Amino acid sequence: MSTAAATRAAAARTPRRRRRGGGGERVAPYVFLAPFIFLFLVFLVLPIIVALYTSFFQTQRSGLGFGGGDGQKFVWFDNYALAFSNPGFIESFGRVLLFGAVQVPVMLAFSLVLALLFDSAVVRWKRFFQLSVFLPYAVPSVVAALIWGFLYQPRVSPIVEGLTSIGVPVNFLAPGTVLWSIANVAVWSVVGVNMIILFSSLQTVPREMYEAARIDGAGELRMALQIKLPMILPALILTMLFSVIGTLQLFNEPMTMRSVTSNISGDYTPNMAVFSATTLGGDINLGSAMAIVIGLVTFVLSVIVSVLSNRKRGSAK
Amino acid sequence: MTQVPVLAPPVSPEPASKPRNRTRVHAEGERPSPAARVAAWIFMGATALYFLVPVYWLIVAATKSTSDLFSTPGFWFAEFNLFTNLAALTEYDNGIFWRWMGNSLIYSGVGSLLMTFISLISGYALAMYRFRGRSVVLAAVLGSMLIPQTVLAQPTYLLLVEIGLNNTIWGVLIPSLAYPFGVLLAFVYAQASVPQELLEAARLDGASEWRAFFSIALKLLSPGGVTIMLFAFIGSWNNFMLPLLVISDARLMPVTVGLSGWSQAAITIPGLQTLVVIGALVSIIPIVVVFVSLQRYWRSGLAAGGVRF
Q1: Do A37 and B137 touch (CB under 8 A)?
Q2: Which positions ≥6 away from B116 have C-beta within 8 Å?
Q3: Are the C-beta atoms of B163 and B97 separated by less than 8 Å?
Q4: Four-residue CA torsion sign, B38, B44, B47, B52
Q5: Is the pLDDT of residue B271 over 60?
Q6: Residue A58 pairs with which residues in a beta bridge?
Q7: Residue A2 DSSP one-character state
Q8: Which value does ipTM take for this structure?
Q9: How far is Cα B248 from Cα B232, in angstroms, rounded to an integer?
Q10: Which of A32, A103, A249, B177 could form an SS bridge with B148, CB 3.0 to 4.6 Å?
């Protein structure tokens, strides 16, 4: 080894010592992070600033007068007032909250039961079953909604036909049921990925714990509830958190399913309301205000979920 | 609904090569009763039906003519028209469908490759170096995971209009590169799989920081990279709201936006129904193939990194 390398080594071992030529070490992390930080600032921070800015203005003349000063008037919180006085927008929040209150627990319970079954010795052909549960995750939600849209339509659906022929008339697209038909598409799409998250988490539980419990005479069910479940609680909480966030941004499925039913309005979910205001309504200022409101609601809800679950985790100890 | 995968920090940073055959360990001693076996079979059978039947229906429906689609039993084959349908799909509007597929491939393929590289190099920097501002970057990465992508879609659209990138390929491609989850995954993975001593040894041998990353760390990070790429690929293949806002030129649309447009138009143009069906089938084939063929890699990537997503 050369002496140069030896001094380099000494420099590397004592990071405090500043040396000319060893500067790469200090500069490197910034260079490595530069692309991400640039993208982060431009496409995560800047859009929020632009939306905030836009949400405080109103376009005086119709047309695409965005950006330039002309035609734009500073109106304080008028757009927010407009958003909150819009019954469709408020109802859309109620709708997705109702949706989430049902879809999230059902979907997580389904994922959890599957993960526990895959983790036990009860199920055979694990690979096949796991893959079939996971497969829908690879199907884009738009395509999933298109497929299920066909399965809901009375003229095409073998399911509707089959149920009607045995005397159970169903209408998956009725005003009262279409929300749950959308929920079904969402469940179908995401159970797989949540199952894998919970399953992977179960796989890291030390097996000795099970042996000890078995010696104590615990059955499979008791082990699942009293050992496995508490051990994977953090993973369960995280899946819950992201499911709640996902619920509030519901867009792809209802937007796609509008082609098979007239019972989904243009502002069926908060995100659809933003989309409608921005494109069809041509009011980007109102759209921005709505987007900011959704962002805030999502943030508050995420904080509530994590605080509640932290408290629960604390009391479980 | 866009589902963000989740991860927890690794329990123990074990070396990547250590085998983990935990699936088999518990088989000993566990003897489920025959009744439990039967119940499990029935439950799993019903579950598999629920998840597979829609895909099966799609395959069957893709082989039917428009009239058969509405008049023959949905779960069974009628006259075999798959190739006629494929030909119709190819001909319609000068083969716009294949353009959409190509666009999706560019958006998702190029996008996820670049995004994976950016995530790996950023995660590596965060894991291996102690520098001023590190905790700020980490906090920003974690915090931004709570910002829903579709909430950003409208503001991003405004920004793209402002900088003149709306209705261009770049308008869809570039915003998808900012993916904090990928950075977080890479950070957790680098912490677990790249030993600090290795970096020091590389410096000892006179390697530059850049070279240490490229010729040593990148190899160790590659299983994690496959995992990130897969999620990025699925994520951008699934992307809908942003391209719907940004792209008005049909020739730049990804396949999700194109198909959804056809589905809307099919209300007035009945022949389009068949094209929506065959198009939906064709559009999921690449992603399912990628997914199933990479299964081994991303599974081992998760296990080796101790990353539980």
Answers
A1: yes
A2: B182, B225, B228, B229, B232
A3: no
A4: negative
A5: yes
A6: A73
A7: -
A8: 0.84
A9: 24
A10: A249
